[in-house]
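[stage:ingest] chain + small molecule (arginine)
[stage:ingest] validated
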Amino acid sequence: MWCPLSQLGPRTQLPPHPNGHLERSKYLPVPDAADKVGMALNSGLPPGVGPYYENHGYQPESLYPPQPARAPSAFSVYPAHYYPPAVPHYTVRVLTNASTPAVRTQPKSSSGTPCTSKTKKALCITFSLVTVLAGAVVASVLLWKFTESKCTVSGMECGSSGTCVSAFQWCDGILHCPSGEDENQCVRLYGPNFILQVYSPQRKSWHPVCRDDWSESYGKAACQDMGYRNSFYSSQGIADDSGATSFMKLNLSASHSDLYQKLYHSDVCSSKTVVSLRCIECGVNRKMGRQSRIVGGASAAPGDWPWQVSLHVQNVHVCGGSIITPEWVVTAAHCVEEPLSHPRYWTAFAGTLRQSSMFYGDGYRVEKVISHPDYDSKTKNNDVALMKLQTPLPFNDRVKPVCLPNPGMMLEPKQPCWISGWGATSEKGKTSDLLNAAMVPLIEPVLCNSRYVYNSLITPSMFCAGYLQGNVDSCQGDSGGPLVTLKNSVWWLIGETSWGSGCAKANRPGVYGNVTVFTDWIHRQMRANS
Ligand code: ARG
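[stage:predict] done
[stage:export] tokens:
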């Protein structure tokens, strides 16, 4: 992390770094693809001229567009309803009857048309009939092909499998889809108060759960559904400030044991409170309550960033990561690209500030590495990965999880955020021995995508943070590490370090994976691999 305010002085006075290259490059055959993006971006540019980048990796229309399941809410400064409703894992397909070639009746014969003599007329009629018939056959084949893998208006498709289930079977507690998509994501936490919401397939929208008749055991069940195996922290009723007019309510007399089958729609919630659910105690650090702020960039003190981990390959720090549960760490997909995709290469160190104090035996071995299936190494779209540790981390003052961001966080356009890591303290410099942290404000996507900055390279799965004048930034070796913000007295993992063109340069701020967009993917992986 480059923080010249505290460490290096103005950029122009930097001595050339003796090492010239990253430590990681000595050990790792993988070129840093993020840097390739940066090179492409800058190549052939006269100084001071806006970047030009031919982004061949961009696919404007892929089969499954990389739309986030919900609004990219690192910048949800707009009310939630501003964005298209989040619908889990299916798209409602509408029969495109309009694409059926229209079968036209032959125009009446008239003088001047070829159908004049009797034989000609007969030939004409036969020809027309054959044409019409052939047209009809082609049309029906096309129509059949086209609708074959799609569900009717009322049905919902299981992922892209072509299997349809009715809306009433979605989120009813019974598996209907071959891969369980129908029961996959029926519950979520919304906003900075962790409001529990349940998806209503009939109304195709999310609704808060009324506190009436709620008990902790339901909270535990909902946490399990979000992939928290045995973890549950609190479940309480709070005043509903979302202005919801429709709630999900428990029907205690229902014979089902399944939580979702017990829930029904109701416009009244007599307690006037909704369920706020926390599955893990997360987002607390040493600074809580002390109101202290980190300025510019400085080395961290024990317990400042207790979720930060250092990910080593062959005893060398390669990337950062963030603890979200005792056994799951969030990092960047580009960190675990081939040939480093196998868990055996990786060791995670938690609770230690100095690289020189991390000894092999104290590390945590990795059991699984899961990279986002839509990660694109060229564009860095969906640059997120998960690591499951072989043994759970014991939490203490220096080792604690950060909170995954919920949709509907409503961050400010320039929300102050903190980045931390052992990355280089100058462009092309080497890994830092001490953990550093710096404050960087969010940068609005439109601004970051402008011609003078990243010229449309920022997708909804990314956002920028830092300063357009440069000087404070993350750098090589910080990748995968956290970008957090404090809201409602809780620290949230809003981003993970992904790429940038150089480090701390003017108009080239750091680019971060938009974790809010990945929250449900993360929950699904935790659930499927618990
Ligand atoms: N890709 C880098 C890494 O692997 C992180 C680069 C961040 N760059 C920046 N200018 N913020 O560590």
